[in-house]
Amino acid sequence: MLAKVTEKDMERVAELAHLELAPEETGRMLRDLNAILDYVAELNELDTMGVVPLAQVSELGDVGGPSAPRADRLEPSLKRDAVMTQAPESDRSFFKVPKVIDR
Amino acid sequence: MATETQTAGSFVAKPKTFGELRAEIAARRVKASDLAASYYQRIEKINPQLNVYLSLTKDRALAQAARVDDLATKGDPLPPLAGIPVGIKDVLIMRGAPATAGSKILQGYQPPYDCTAVARLEAAGAMLLGKLNCDEFAMGSSNENSVYGPVRNPVDPERVPGGSSGGSAAAVAANLAVATLGTDTGGSVRQPASFCGVVGVLPTYGRVSRYGLIAFASSLDRIGPLAANVRDAASMLSIIAGHDPKDATSSPAPVEDYAAASDKPAAGLRIGVPAEYFDEGLDPEVGAGIEKGIEALKAAGCQVKPVSLPHTRYAVPTYYLVATAEASANLARFDGVRYGYRSPNSATLSDMYSHSRDEGFGAEVKRRIFLGTYALSAGYYDAYYLKAQQVRRLLAEEFLRAFAEVDAIVTPTSPFPAFKLGERADDPLAMYLADIYTVTASLAGICGVSVPCGATSAGLPVGMQILASHLRESTAFRVGRAIEEAKI
């Protein structure tokens, strides 16, 4: 867990997250991330061998979580028109985006 | 009419209680439409100085006022929140009203549906005044991360109101709403409530539907009320709580009349005090305020005893790994395709995604997406995300063991009172430590309330955090009432 984030890691993460970093932002982000990761390394002090990970508190047992999944039924949803009005660019039926394949 | 009392040199003003307003409207001494108008006048006058509201929903509030006045004129029964002016944190969506989440990336977005909690407030008669400023995507502890500028603390405008629900807390403190809704992922209702001297509720995870809440970290996000007193906050929770088919994690457990339950004296309750929350990082004046609160609980007939929560110190690192991992997934949806901001001049789809996100997200949001994406990426998943989930279980189980011994646990809400604008803005780690006493309950899914508990010598509010086990909101409210009645 003591791995240092490198500029190469940052490039990979930026690609995964569809984010860009201007060259002047990279240094700051690298410094912040390494400081935060150094701090979270404190968790290594704890032996968690055999501890079952907890993703959702409903897994804790009787804590008032949902009891059963809902029935799988078709329900009315939002009207397409109402949704499409929010699109930056659309033809009212489809979202328009720049071309995907360059040929 | 909106103003009852205003302290000189600050913007602090105490709203009337729900009960007082209801009686006045029912007796037709006050018209809901006049009440709404007086709040809008006050907002117009004070908002430029505090930056609390991002947008107003006047048409909707006035239409509701007309309905309430109509009922009152006919002498028909009034719904429970008839004519109560409320404000809504701008991560909760309202049909047709701008929803920004404090971010540029949602520029121009006007959602086509209502958040369940907001719709329930309106169905109960509340007047929805407008949308309240907050940290971008609720990420922050000072409200300085809003692209629309920081909110200022009504107690001292040179100081932050806390975050991320800074606008929601400041609105109540300055009587720009009688009550508000905020959201709490790692302390975002409780901490600003403590900084501004108001009451803020963290309901049990699943108690309130998250439908229509712009997601930050889905296993942690909760919607909670803020109000000037415990009873009103409790009333509001009874309205917004309860199962919602639109949120699969919402609890089917029956909803209590929390306000009535809060009337029951706290005498006989067992109160735990964890030493881990009173360490060297705690401001001595905040500590002194909480000590007075604990004495008041003893005087009220509570049995106070120490409890041990040794994993507390691991909560902030655990929280920041879990929350950023979930955020990196949740915020993937903002890509410029379906709503909000799209960067112009992108030649390809891939460029459009990354340009829109680069230009649309602020620095803290990017930092958290980077951290979360890194923690989830191949090679690091086990070391970071999985490890954090394991520690999360240890933290949650530790609380469950403590609640076998005590009914409630009391701590400071924040290690320090409201700090000055800019004081922590350059150091993300220092800002994260502001959440040190609140993230534990967030990870464990338990409920709590932050209640004003005295002030520092400079007059800055101190908040006591009262935690109770899952679905034991009534217990937390009873303890809160005892603190309130002690007038510390």
TrEMBL record, chain A:
Top-level taxon of the source organism: Bacteria
Reactions this protein catalyses: L-glutamyl-tRNA(Gln) + L-glutamine + ATP + H2O = L-glutaminyl-tRNA(Gln) + L-glutamate + ADP + phosphate + H(+); L-aspartyl-tRNA(Asn) + L-glutamine + ATP + H2O = L-asparaginyl-tRNA(Asn) + L-glutamate + ADP + phosphate + 2 H(+)
GO MF annotations, alphabetized: asparaginyl-tRNA synthase (glutamine-hydrolyzing) activity; ATP binding; glutaminyl-tRNA synthase (glutamine-hydrolyzing) activity; transferase activity
Coiled coil regions in record: none
Sequence similarity: Belongs to the GatC family.
NCBIfam families: gatC
Protein name: Aspartyl/glutamyl-tRNA(Asn/Gln) amidotransferase subunit C
Organism expressing this protein natively: Candidatus Sulfuritelmatomonas gaucii
Gene name of this polypeptide: gatC
Automatic annotation (TrEMBL), chain B:
One annotated GO molecular function: ATP binding
Catalytic activity: L-glutamyl-tRNA(Gln) + L-glutamine + ATP + H2O = L-glutaminyl-tRNA(Gln) + L-glutamate + ADP + phosphate + H(+)
Enzyme class: ligase
BP-aspect Gene Ontology terms: translation
Annotated Pfam families: Amidase
Span of the signal peptide: none
Enzyme Commission identifier(s): 6.3.5.7
GO CC annotation terms, alphabetical: glutamyl-tRNA(Gln) amidotransferase complex
PROSITE patterns linked to this entry: AMIDASES
Domain Amidase: 35-475
InterPro entries: Amidase, Amidase_CS, Amidase_dom, AS_sf, GatA
Enzyme active site: 89 (charge relay system), 164 (charge relay system), 188 (acyl-ester intermediate)
Keywords: ATP-binding, Ligase, Nucleotide-binding, Protein biosynthesis, Transferase
Subunit structure: Heterotrimer of A, B and C subunits.
Job description of the protein: Allows the formation of correctly charged Gln-tRNA(Gln) through the transamidation of misacylated Glu-tRNA(Gln) in organisms which lack glutaminyl-tRNA synthetase. The reaction takes place in the presence of glutamine and ATP through an activated gamma-phospho-Glu-tRNA(Gln).
PANTHER family documented for this protein: GLUTAMYL-TRNA(GLN) AMIDOTRANSFERASE SUBUNIT A (PTHR11895:SF151), TRANSAMIDASE (PTHR11895)
Family that this chain belongs to: Belongs to the amidase family. GatA subfamily.
Protein name: Glutamyl-tRNA(Gln) amidotransferase subunit A
